[in-house]
Amino acid sequence: MDDKAVQVTDLRKTYGDRTVVDGVSFEIARGETFALLGPNGAGKSTTVEILEGYRRRSGGEVRVLGTDPGAGGRAWRARLGVVLQSTGQSQVYTVREQLTQFAAYYPRPREVDQVIDAVGLGPQAGTRIAKLSGGQQRRVDVALGIIGRPELLFLDEPTTGFDPQARREFWQLIRSLQDEGTTIVLTTHYLDEAAELADRLGVITRGTMRAIGPVAGFGGPDAHTPRVRWREDGRLREESTDRPWAFTQALAARLGAEPDELEIRRPTLEEVYLDMVDEAPAASVEAGAR
Question: If phi over 0 gives left and psi between -120 and 50 gives alpha, with beta otherwise, what is residue 16?
């Protein structure tokens, strides 16, 4: 069996003279959780829809579980799980009825009540979906995505509408799927979620892959250069330096005292990401790859 669940080479998508995805390339190993990040309109949703087989590409090569998604049939689709941003349930059924119906579509589904318990909806199993809260309906979406025991699971903004406790419970569910060897493609605007769940990150901006690499050290060493922040003459100042202690000593000597509001820290993943999407497009790079 190929050790790559997803292989994308020079992927392109155009609409007339408008290029939405421009030469994107990446691979995802089996059992890996890969977070695809990017601002709205960057091309990430189009890329994921091509992988799922819902959108035709204009150029490049794509293999998902060894198959061209543009030609994937029913048996191939049964190996995928998809959790879309918008809800896909029928509001007239109960949670158990809806999952029982979907389980019948797959050759080797999970046990319905186990899935209901796994997404934290045991007490609502007999409740009509229309009567559930928004967060509970989102859990039904996740349940529908995993009922078929997918080899590859696509999660598109899965915790939108979740409160902090529900998000952390959902993370535990995803970790259990990871332990089972499920390959996961995650899109999210929550950088802490990507850091918690993903093995690697990819950032798409303006249709190109801006950076790709492991979560630890993402963006490369330059992106994680320590930042010294202090207040001087009533203004908050900041300097990036790979010698923060020497810099603060020189700063204190110049000011004749310890600077006000002195802070030394490394950029967070969110800061690295925001710096990346604010920059001009660049060629694809391996960011902190190991």
Answer: left
Q: Which of 104-108, 163-167, 184-188, 235-239 has the lowest mean pLDDT?
A: 163-167
Q: What is the Cα 273 distance to its own chain's centre?
A: 13
3-state secondary structure 74-138: HHHHCCEEEECCCCCCCCCCEHHHHHHHHHCCCCCCCCHHHHHHHCCCHHHCCCEHHHCCHHHHH
Integer Cα distance of 254 and 95 in angstroms: 67
- Cα 56 off chain centre by: 22
How do the domains of the chain map onto residue ranges? 4-79+151-219, 226-265
The backbone torsions φ and ψ at residue 88, rounded to the nearest 5 degrees and listed phi first, read: -125, 15
- Top CATH class, 4-79+151-219: alpha beta
pLDDT number for residue 279: 62
Residue 84 has a CB neighbour count (10 Å cut-off) of: 18
Helix, strand or coil for residue 242? coil
The whole-model pTM stands at 0.81
Helix (H, G, I), strand (E, B) or coil at 24: strand
- Give SS3 for 171: helix
Cα(281)–Cα(278) distance, integer angstroms: 9
Segment 55-100, tens digit of pLDDT: 999 999 999 999 999 999 999 999 999 988 766 667 789 999 999 9
